[in-house]
Specification:
Chain lengths: ~110, ~110
């Protein structure tokens, strides 16, 4: 059963702490996305990679957020330092180039920054 | 800059009736449109899509209509079932897999 796996599912931290979220894309998918769900904006694109190379991270606050793909099976999203306004659900999604254009989403990481 | 807009945050419909969800977009370069469904505590899942070369795509109880001149698409669910209660996101892309999403519409199907 191929699926995108995200960890942690829930994270509560204090303002100023570093937070790292991890994502394992579906095997064979070469495009990986990080989205953030907020009440007002819906799903906002933070960054995405193709073949591990960053293609667009314009949606990400550069001073505190960073996204990487150390290898084809792992994508990370790091926030340092975290702030209360970062509280949201962060979704990772993957897709296969040349496919239907459909993105497959993980279950999300719910972050609460106190 | 919200390029995809879902102006109705919520919709309540009786079981068996039609649900109509609307979506507007501003970027004329979008050429692929999708609807995703999301249950609480789960990730969004793909529901149905349509290419800009078509004006209608049907899959079982779900039909998506595209009006390019109006930059508008809609999702029809007929008949609505209790399991359809979820948040529905409209999304659009320029064939580069970079999806722009709307804010979502919460559908509640009443028994």
């Amino acid at each position: 059963d191929a699926r995108v796996t995200q960890t942690p599912r829930h994270k509560v931290t204090e303002m100023g702490q570093e937070v790292t979220m991890r994502c394992q894309p579906i095997l064979g998918h070469n495009t990986v996305f990080w989205y953030r769900q907020t009440m007002m904006q819906g799903l906002e694109l933070l960054a995405y990679f193709r073949n591990r190379a960053p293609l667009d991270d314009s949606g990400m606050p550069k001073d505190r957020f960073s996204a990487e793909m150390p290898d084809a099976t792992l994508a990370t999203l790091k926030i340092q330092p975290s702030e209360p306004r970062d509280s949201a659900v962060y979704f990772c999604a993957s897709a296969k180039s040349g496919g239907t254009g459909e993105l497959f989403f993980g279950e999300g990481s719910r972050l609460t920054v106190l | 800059d919200q390029q995809v807009k879902q102006n109705s945050p919520s919709l309540s419909v009786q079981e068996g009736r039609i649900s109509i969800l609307n979506c507007d977009y501003t970027n004329s370069m979008f050429d692929y449109f999708l609807w995703y469904k999301k249950y609480p505590a789960e990730g969004p899942t793909f529901l149905i899509s349509i290419s800009s070369i078509k004006d209608k795509n049907e899959d079982g109880r779900f039909t998506v209509f595209l009006n390019k001149s109006a930059k508008h698409l809609s999702l029809h669910i007929v008949p609505s079932q209790p399991g359809d209660s979820a948040v529905y996101f409209c999304a659009a892309s320029r064939n580069d897999y970079k999806l722009s999403f709307g804010a979502g519409t919460t559908v509640t199907v009443r028994a």
